[in-house]
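Dear colleagues,

As part of the handover before I leave the project, I'm documenting each prediction I ran so the next person doesn't have to rerun anything. This entry is a single chain, and its sequence is reproduced below.
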Amino acid sequence: MNNNKDFPSLSLIIVTRNVERTLPELLRTMSIQTYPKSKTEIVIVDGRSTDKTLDIIKQSKLNIRVVQGKYPNDPEACKGEGLSLAKGEIVGLIDSDNYFPHKNWLSKMILPLMENKELVGSYTWRFAYKKSDKALNRYFSLIGSADPIGLYLGKADKLSYISDKWIGFGKVVKNTKAYFIVQFDKDHFPTLGSNGFFARRKFLIRGKVGPEKFFHIDVPFDILKYNLNNYAVVKDVIIHDTSIGSLIAYVRKRANYMRLHYQERARDRRYFVFDIRRKHDIFRLILFIFFTITFIQPLYVSLKGYIRVRDSAWFLHPLFCFLITVSYAYAVLAKSLK
C-alpha cells in the first residue's frame, strides 16, 4: 500500500441539507486523510440548502462535485442519485454528521477490500465515544444505536461498549487483528449501509439503486440473492455527531423518519427492521414494549453499562426507549386513523 497505484479509486457520497453545523468538521477530517487524493472523489448531493452549506463547500480545497438533488425532501433518494454519479471502484456512504477519527481511517476501511476480493463492503464495529461529547451523542455511542427498536430486535450494525465480544448478527468466518469478516443471510442481516459504509460499486449497483427505490439497508439486502453476503467489520470507530439539541427534538426527528421510510415508502422497501412476517420480530417487539413500559430491563442495561464505562449518559436509556415507543405508536395510530 506504499504506492498510489495499489489503492482502488474511491467515491465518497454525502447528502447535505442545511448542515452548516457539522459539514466543516467532516470536510476537515476528510482533508487530512492519507488515502491518495488522486484516487478520491467526493460527490455531494444537496437538498436545496438555504444556510451556509454551499458556501462551506465552495471554500473547501477537496475534489468535490456538487449537484442539486431532484428529491430534496428524501435523503435516501439523494443517495441513489449520488451512486448514479459515482465513478470509483469503491463507494462510501458518509452521512453529513459523520467525522473521521484519524488520518489513516479511510485507508484502514478500504484495506480489507484490498486483501479480500470476495468482500462486498466494510463498516466500523462501533461509534466513537468521547467523554467530552454531548450527553445524547455519548449515549448513542455507548449503546451502539440511535434507535432502540433495531437494538432490541438484534439488528443494530454497531456494537455497544458493554462488551468487546462479537454479539452482532451474522457468522464470523475470519477474525484478524484489524477486522472481522462476517457472513450474513436474509434472516440475519443488520441495519448496515450508512455512517461510514463502503462497498464495491460493481456489486452494489446490482441491487435496486434508482433514486425512488434506493434505501441504504435495502440495496445490500437486494444483492444477497447473488451470494454477495460477506462484509468486513473493521475494529475502528466513526464519529457520529447526531445530536440536534434536546432528546425530545431527536425523538421527533426519528418519528418523522419512520413515517417517511416505513409508512409512506413502505411499498418500495425490501428490508424491514420490524418484519411482521417473522415470529422472531413479533416476539422481540412485544418484549421490547414490555421492557419499555416497566423500565426494569432498560435500567438494568444502564447499570451494566455504567459499571463498564462510568458515564451517566447510560441512564438516558430507559427514558429514550419509552419516548421512542410512544412516538412510534402515535405515528402508527395516526396513519391508521388517517
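The chain has a mean pLDDT of 91. Residues 251 and 324 are 6 Å apart (CA to CA).

All the best with the project,
I.
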